[in-house]
Structures are given as C-alpha cells and as structure tokens.
From TrEMBL:
Gene3D superfamilies in alphabetical order: Glycosidases
This protein's record includes keyword Hydrolase: yes
GO biological process: cellulose catabolic process
InterPro entries: GH, GH_1_N_CS, Glyco_hydro_1, Glyco_hydro_1_beta-glucosidase
Annotated active site: E174 (proton donor), E368 (nucleophile)
Protein name in UniProt: Beta-glucosidase
C-alpha cells in the first residue's frame, strides 16, 4: 500500500466509511475578539506582551471566520469534506470561565453547526484548543485544580446546546503542547516558564478530560468522545546508540507520549521519577480516584502528527531535563517551518501505538496533519506532503491499526501562535489585509482525492 505519485486517484483505497476532514481552532481563525460579550482568553493577553508573538501579530481579527463562516462552509462543501473539526472558544461561552453563560456565544456555534449539517458535513468540535479564559488563569489556570471542575461545567453547557446535533466530540487538543509550551517554556500563552514544575498542568488537563467525558455522556445520547494528543516517534540522533542516549529517548517518550496516553488507556502514569522528572507521588497532585476518572472509556484517540523527535543524552549531566533535543543526521526535506518531512514516522507512530496498547487502543483518528509552505497558490510541496502522509496512514492500516478518519491541518491560513501570520498551513490562502480566501492547488488535489475515494 504505497504510492510514488501525487495523483490523488493512485493513492490506496480507504474504507467506504473512512472520514475525510479538515481542522481549525477558534483563536486562530475566528477574530471578533471583543464582540458579543466574549471574555478575554490567555491568548488575548499574551499577544500584547512585547516580543511574545512575531511582529506583534494578534488574533483579534484573524480570518474573520466569526463573520464569514458561511463562506468557509461553502468552501468545505466544495472540498467535499465528510467532517470539520473546529474548536469552541471557552471565553465566548463563559466570559469568566464559569458562572453566567453568554447566549450570543452559543448562538454562533449553533449557526455554525446548522450550516455544516445543511452542507452534509459532520461537525466535530474540540472543547479546548488552548484559549483558557484569562479570569481562570488569574486564579492559577491549569495549575489550579478548580479549573478542572470549571471545564466540566463548560462542557456540560456546550453539550446541552449542541448535543442534539453533534455526536463526535473532542475534549482537549494537545495537552502536552499546552503544558510544555505554555507553562513549561513560556513560548505560548500564558507564558509561564516553570520547566518540570509545570507537570501538574498535565494531570489537571487529563482529569478535566475525564470529567468532561462524564458530562458529555450524561447529555449526548450516542455520543463519541475523543481526545486529540500530539504524538511523536522518538528517534536517536544517529545509529551509534549508547546506553545513555537510549535512556534519554525513553525519558522523552515517557514525557511527551506516555504521560498523556498511558493514563487514558492503561489507567496509570509512566514512572517519571525513574528519570528524575518528578517525585513518585507527584507532590500530592494525583488524588485517589483521579486515574479512574481519566481512564473512562474512549470512543477514539485523536492523533496529531507532524514529525518525529530526535534526542540525545544531555550534554550537561546536571541539566534540568534528562534529554537534549537535537536534529536528525539524515538530510530530510523541510517545511517552511523548518520541520523535517518524515511520512514514515506516521506509520511508525501508529504501529507503535498498536504494539504498546494492543486491545486497549481505541479506534484512531488523525486529527491533525499538515505543513506550512511559502505563500502562493501553487503549493506542490504541500500536495507531496499530504500524499506521503496519507499513504503512511494506509500502510499502518494494512498492518492492523484501526484508523477511522483523517483531518488535515488546516482548512485556512491562520494565526500560527507565536509565529503570528508568518506560517501558512492552509489549503486555502488567506489575504490577511482583505481576508479574501483563494483555494490553492492542494485544495483541488484534496477535493479530487476525496471524490476518487467515493467513486
């Protein structure tokens, strides 16, 4: 099940019920930052910190999706999508994170869901894609266990409004990235640089997932509940393996992958204390009953994949982390973000998940996969990227991995976090001066792929 061609009709044949989709996130596309009673998020605050975002860009307007969603749904219909993954803005629904509900926020997502259904596209909302209400961050954010209960209450509010029409839900997006970039290294909102003291953020996000799962199941009849984890195969810098490098790879795998998959699927955390990354009790953060809540049965595991991670043993034995991130020795092609293009890493990742979790692994959904490329409509490099990674999914399926759908990142060029508008991931080019949308060659290619899979 391989292909050496980017001809969409020559890619492997997927099951008839395989879902083809695209993904976005609220802060990255919506705009309308202070309209209809929306409260401030941590990103509304962070972008105003001098030097936090390249060239001082903000998501105040972004793609103006809040006002132009009908146009975007028309594009999705042209594309032939089976499903659309978007995120709900927590502070648009609960401006202070709890308490009084803002009905205009719910009304917006009500209209969006109806437009998607009218277009024959299944709405797949993510409840948290990093835009925590600033009011909750002021009380400690994800370091504060009370945020867990606030998230469950928010999930119940959204499910009560949309659950009669929305059946597939994603609780959190990439809790590893939010913990590490937002609280560990400070390069994303809320901009805290706590290093390993950020670990409680991991537990509180996963516990919030568990409580939200219970809230969704209590409200949505026949609902499917997923979480979207950023996963990466961990590779050594070179074939010259030393015990200390193998140990470093194991430590990174425990922190990036197993910390967020093991409790969901096995009901336990990896022993981070074996790598010196925390004490065995997590300082009392993990309480009796928490792991049972986190390990509530899932209907699917969302996997976001971009590239493998290469590691070596730390150059400084006294370093805070038991690994150093490094570059591959191989000369891979690179995206505009300078990320290596490694399609076989996705096959490796998926088959590795199956090998580790066996029957405990639920059906998998590729909830993000895509690449930044230079501006312009003739994006052959993106087509080659997508073709290679979709073929990689097919190879994993041929080896027994149950993959149910593929969502490319992203439908639109958007606000790319600390990079502002300098990275372009969209099948659709957005002119950020006029917000004009223009489909790229990759849009037409993906449309042809979806059509060929249905013929």
């Amino acid at each position: 099940m391989t292909t050496s061609s980017t001809d969409a009709t020559r890619l492997p044949r997927f099951p008839a019920d395989f879902a083809w989709g695209a993904s976005t996130a609220a802060y990255q596309i919506e705009g309308a930052a202070d309209e209809d009673g929306k409260g401030a998020s941590i990103w509304d605050t962070f972008v105003r910190r001098p030097g936090a975002v390249r060239d001082g860009h903000t998501g105040d307007v972004a793609c103006d999706h809040h006002h132009r969603f009908d146009e975007d749904v028309t594009l999705m219909r042209r594309l032939g999508l089976d499903a659309y993954r978007f995120s709900v803005s927590w502070p648009r629904i609960l401006p202070t994170g709890a308490g009084k509900v803002e009905p205009r926020g719910l009304d917006f997502y009500d209209r969006l869901v109806d437009a998607l259904l009218d277009a024959g596209i299944e709405p797949t909302p993510t409840l948290f894609h990093w835009d925590l209400p600033q009011a909750l961050e002021d009380e400690g954010g994800w370091l504060n266990r009370e945020t867990v209960d606030r998230f469950a209450q928010y999930a119940a509010v959204v499910a009560e409004r949309l659950g009669d029409r929305v059946k597939r839900w994603i609780t959190l997006n990439e809790p590893f990235v939010h913990m590490s970039f937002g609280y560990g290294f400070g390069v994303h909102a809320p901009g805290r640089a706590l290093m390993l003291d950020a670990l409680p953020v991991a537990h509180h996000q996963l516990l919030a997932h568990g409580l939200a799962t219970a809230a969704l199941r209590a409200t949505v009849a026949g609902g499917q509940i997923l979480i979207a984890n950023n996963c990466t195969p961990v590779r050594l810098h070179s074939d010259a393996q030393q015990d200390k490098d193998v140990a470093a790879a194991s430590a990174y795998d425990a922190l990036h992958n197993r910390l967020f998959n093991d409790p969901l699927l096995l009901g336990s955390y990896p022993d981070l204390s074996a790598y010196g990354m925390t004490d065995p009790s997590w300082g009392g953060v993990v309480r009796d009953g928490d792991l049972a809540t986190i390990a509530a049965p899932l209907d699917g595991l969302g996997v976001n994949y971009y590239n493998p991670t290469w590691v070596t043993a730390p150059a400084d034995p006294a370093a805070a982390l038991p690994f150093d991130l490094t570059e591959p020795a191989e000369p891979y092609e690179r995206t505009a973000f300078d990320w290596p293009v490694v399609p076989d890493g996705l096959t490796e990742l998926l088959t590795g998940l199956k090998a580790r979790y066996g029957e405990d692994l639920p059906p998998v959904w590729i909830t993000e996969n895509g690449c930044s490329q230079p501006a312009g409509l003739h994006d052959q490099a993106r087509i080659e990227y997508l073709a290679g990674h979709i073929a990689a999914v097919a190879r994993a399926m041929s080896r027994g991995v149950d993959v149910r759908g593929y969502f490319t990142w992203s439908l639109l060029d958007n606000f790319e976090w600390a990079e502002g508008y300098h990275q372009r991931f969209g099948l659709v080019e957005v002119d950020f001066a006029t917000r004009r949308r223009t489909p790229r060659a990759s849009f037409e290619w993906y449309r042809d792929l979806i059509a060929s899979q249905r013929s």
